[in-house]
Amino acid sequence: MEGNYNPLPAAALYPGVAVGALAMAYALTLTRHASGRFLIFAIWLRYVMQAFPETTHPPVYAGLSLNALASVAICVVGLAIVSNRLGVISRLPIVLALLVAIVVSGVLNGAYAGTMETLLKWGYFFVVALCLYDCVRRDGDVRIFGPLLFVFVTPLLLQALSVALGVSKASASDGSVSFVGGYSHEASLSMVLVTCFAVASFAPGLHPALRVGLLTASVIGVFAANYRTSLIALAPLAIGYITFGAARLFTTRQRLFVGAVSLLGALGVTVLAAWLLRERMADIAAAASSDALFKAPGEFNQTERALLSGRLYIWSSYLDAYFAGDDLRILFGFGPDSWFGVFPTYAHNTVISYLYEFGAFGAALIVLVWAAMLARTRHIPDPWLRGQVLFAHIGFIVLNFATMPFWQIEGIILYGVLCGYTLALTWRRVAPRARLMPLPATPHLVRRANAGRSG
């Protein structure tokens, strides 16, 4: 499934990273909050480290890779910085219940290393969500999204260099070509680009041309990365922005008309894109008309095993192994990361993976987490922003049905941003004069009128 990794040449990689580092350093000057600066640095660091997989992926100390060690440091330092916001976690009881289920599954199966790794990823989620939440609560608006856009200079530039130099990665499943900018897998980069789209669509104070440029670059980047799951997941985010986000730029009387026209346009573009990509998406239609979804893995023929890059066969294998377990495994699963050594690759579906690893309790709770965050969007005061955030959450949920963003830190960052923003928008004890919605678009990346405000 990984295909052939093809790194960028050093003459392109290092200058690209250096330019991205300068952009990140400038972004640090645009926020006065420690939480904001740490959020910018932490996300940028993760994106950069993923561009050096040969260095950051192998274990270097006590069986831990540089990626793992960096994640531990991010969690420890980040939670210390936002220690005054830790009480917010108590408002996420379903997430806490999920963490308990993960621990129980790990203890019952003796999977202590996998348990710690899974909890570390959720710790990363809390760091991202709470840092973003803290910035919004301090400023009363989402000006942190402007500076945060600078962290995407590195992945966008590296991907552009890979396209310009013809450095691509061929998929082992169907031979298609992906431009991943030195990343080891197209899933990681495509999640970064979906995150870039989300942040650019929410960021206040952007010049319209800059916003359109970033949104377009994100979409083109996902196409170049050639990861179908992210292409499909990007559609709800795009529809949400075009229908609701763009309409917020108009007067109250004009919004309903503009929103309706934009929705029709977005649906038309979606249909056109589906038609243009009909050959690339042919597997989806074939899978929908096939009975392979209901077959045991031993009954798959060679053609069916290749559908959706092998996903139907992978899902069937996981489900077959899960239902063959005893009652304890049915309830609590086989333990965190228990698929290692049993299956050649991860499940490529969050619900199926959680079912196998954490049992019926874990799978039910992760679905309830998504449902709870969707329900929370109902409390966003601005109906147009409410629609945009709702569609962003739907896009993330779609992403989970053919890949596993919770297994990759890039996906954790995306969900942390969405949930942190949603929590901030729905906090009821808002100061009377605070603004928890993006400001109207202006020609500036960061509003000069707010430049002098301290944290």
Secondary structure: elements and pairs:
Blueprint: H1 10-28, H2 34-49, H3 53-56, E1 59-61, E2 64-65, H4 66-81, H5 93-109, H6 112-139, H7 145-148, H8 153-165, E3 169-170, E4 177-178, H9 186-202, H10 208-225, H11 228-245, H12 252-276, H13 282-288, H14 302-306, H15 311-323, H16 327-332, H17 350-376, H18 383-399, H19 409-425
Helix pairs in contact: 1-2, 1-8, 2-4, 2-6, 4-6, 5-6, 5-17, 6-19, 8-10, 9-10, 9-11, 9-19, 11-12, 11-18, 15-17, 18-19
Commentary on this structure:
- With 455 residues, this protein is mainly α.
- It is 63% helix and 2% strand.
- It has a domain at 10-240 and 405-450.
- A two-stranded antiparallel ribbon has the order 1-2.
- A hairpin with a 6-residue loop joins β3 and β4.
- Mean pLDDT is 85; it is low at 429-455.
Considering the chains and any ligands shown, give keywords for the structure.
disordered C terminus; 4 strands; globular; two-stranded antiparallel ribbon; single chain; 455 residues; mainly alpha
